[in-house]
Structure formats: C-alpha cells, structure tokens
Write a structure and sequence with these properties.
Helix content is 43%, strand content 2%. The chain is an all-alpha fold. The radius of gyration is 23 Å and the shape is globular.
Length: 362
C-alpha cells in the first residue's frame, strides 16, 4: 500500500531465531532445575513418588478443612515448622512430649513454645497418611514441612515443592538450647542478622522469612515495651493508640494481628505495614529502620512476586536445616513420642531454671 514494499524474512533466518530462543529457554530451565536439585543428601523432590504417591493430596484435602474451620491455624502450623527447624534441625523434635523416664520439661514446654498450636493436626494427618501408605511410611517431620507449605498456599501464598525424606529425631532439645536458638520478639536487628548468618541465611533470607508475619498474631507482652512507659518513636502514633486500646496495660492478656492490612491473607502487606511504621514487634519494624534491610523491605512491599520468590527460596533452605535422613533417627508411629523399640540414650538432660517470657518469635 502507498507504494511501500513488504520485506520478507528468509525462512532459514526465522528457523535460526526460533532455534536460538529454544536453546536459551532450555538452558534457563536446566539452570532452574540445577538450582532446584541442590538438596541435602538423602532428600528428594520425588521421595514418595512410588512409596506414598497420594501423600500430598491426603494432606491437602484435610488441610483445606482445617483452615476453613480455623484460619488462624495457618499461622500456628507455619510457626510450628519454624520452631522445629531452628532448634536442632527439622526433625520433629518439637512434637515430642516429655519422657516418663526423664525430665518433665521438654522442647515443647520451653517458654518460646508454650503457645504453639497444631500438634493435634499433625498427629491426625500422620494417622491418615499411615492408614493409606502403611505404618512407618512418612515421618512426622516431613508431614510438618508439607503442612507449613499448605498453610501458606491456602491463605493465598506461593505454591512450591517441598523436598522430602526427613526422619524423626530420637531426642528433644533442652530448655536452654531452645531458648538459645529461637529468636525472641525483642532481639536487636544486629543479633538477628548475625544469628541467621551463622545458619547460612543472608539479609534477604531474614527479611523474606520475617514476611511470614503477614499472618498470625502477637501477644501483648511481646510488644507492650514499645508502648509503655513511653512510646517507641519508630511506631506510628495512631497505630500506637490502637494497640493501647487492645493492650491497656503492659501485661494485658490479649492479642493483635501482626499484619494490620490483611491479617488472614499471605501477601506482601506486612512490608507495607513496616513502611508505614505499623510493625508490631521490635525486630519487624527494625527491618525497615536498619539501612542494611530497608531496601529489601521496600522491594518486597512494591513487588509481591519478588517477595514470594525469595520467601520460597528461604523456606526450602530452612526446611533442610540439620535434617536426619537414611537410617538416622526413626519414623514415628505417634508424633508425640518415640517408637517403643527405639533405644533411648537419654531423651533430655538437666534443664535450667531461666525464666523467660513465652512471647511471639519467628
């Protein structure tokens, strides 16, 4: 038209261009696959493909009912996985009750874990899975990891694969070990970053994992030091007034949502809260105050896809901390106690008397 000529591209050029694109895409997929396969020895993305092929569907079907009945359990079950992994690894030790032959105190009853919920959900799922796939088929620690992922997905968070093949620990941690390894709601950001760095988590991992506080609640005693006797200057004044109505005294027994904008949805609004000086816990708000993590918080606040990507990376890394595999540990037939035929080298040692508030932690 109008005297112009249409330029034809030779067919061999089109084929060459398409060929290059295909090669680039394949190289990218291979790179992603390689990254995905960097797992702790003994874990696999397809561990139960033949041993228990319906494992994840059994858990997901029941989890849909659990979260529909009580959405608050999503945060509780996610927190249960965090607390298990950060104390002697992801071995299901936090699920163990105290032994009749040892101290009544256990990892489960250490101060940071006193308000943990969801133990009954894990055990119910263990029964359902073992009924379908056989006793001793799937560990409680693997079930806990899958449940944490499903809690995220069922509240709007990212879908991702969970590497499996963990075995359950034979012992629980002491009270002192539990206190030493779980971050408190009062921890300074310097210590938080240092403690995580010692576990091979960088600043991006720390901020991403903190994003789990987009669901869940905090008890008054874990943040009223920011309100009384004087208000923390890093907290928005209107937000502080709201919290004071929930917690009129420093010791009020009440809770408030960790994410003021979308408390029951797993999204990036928690980071928007921080940018508006509406973080509830000290270490949360400090992530925006500190120059080392401020830009990461901002990037997640404006880009939920980026947050989800980094969160999944950090979660998969965390879920492999000090795991037991192969012939190590056992596969419990009841998540709250060791198998009867398992040798007990001493389920726990003497537990100290440190009196630490059982406040909200990771």
């Amino acid at each position: 038209m109008g005297g112009s000529k249409m330029t034809l591209v030779p067919s061999h050029t089109v084929k060459l261009t398409l060929g290059v694109l295909v090669v680039v895409m394949l190289m990218h997929l291979k790179c992603l696959e390689a990254q995905q396969q960097q797992l702790v020895e003994g874990l696999s993305w397809k561990f139960f493909e033949s041993k228990c092929p319906k494992l994840e569907s059994i858990i997901r079907k029941q989890m849909v009912k659990v979260i529909k009945k009580d959405v608050a359990l999503a945060a509780s079950l996610l927190r249960l996985h965090f607390h298990d992994c950060f104390v002697q690894g992801c071995d299901g030790s936090v699920l163990l009750d105290g032994s009749a032959s040892g101290p009544a105190d256990s990892e489960k009853t250490a101060p940071p874990n006193l308000r943990l919920r969801g133990f009954d959900v894990i055990e119910d799922l263990r029964r359902r899975v073992h009924k379908q796939c056989g006793a001793g088929s799937v560990s409680c620690s693997d079930i806990t990891a899958i449940v944490a992922r499903d809690s995220i997905v069922l509240t709007g968070g990212p879908k991702y694969k969970v590497p499996l093949g963990r075995r359950d620990g034979l012992t629980f941690a002491t009270r002192n070990a539990t206190l030493a390894n779980l971050p408190s709601p009062f921890v300074p950001v310097d210590k938080l970053l240092a403690d995580f760095a010692a576990r091979n988590f960088d600043a991006t991992d720390v901020v991403a994992l903190s994003g789990a506080h987009t669901i869940g609640v905090a008890h008054c005693t874990s943040f009223t030091q920011r309100l009384y006797p004087t208000q923390d200057t890093t907290m928005d004044k209107t937000f502080a007034s709201t919290l004071k109505r929930v917690c009129p005294t420093a010791t009020t027994n009440a809770t408030t949502s960790l994410d003021v904008r979308s408390p029951n949805t797993f999204d990036n609004k928690y980071f928007v809260d921080l940018m508006n000086k509406q973080g509830v816990l000290t270490p949360d708000q400090d992530l925006y105050t500190d120059k080392r993590t401020r830009s990461i918080v901002t990037s997640f606040a404006v880009n939920q896809t980026l947050f989800f990507e980094k969160f999944v990376n950090a979660m998969v890394k965390m879920s492999q901390m000090q795991v037991l595999t192969g012939t190590q540990g056992e596969i419990r037939n009841n998540c709250s106690r060791r198998n009867a035929n398992t040798y007990d080298p001493l389920i726990s040692t003497f537990v100290g008397d440190a009196d630490v508030d059982s406040a909200q932690s990771f």
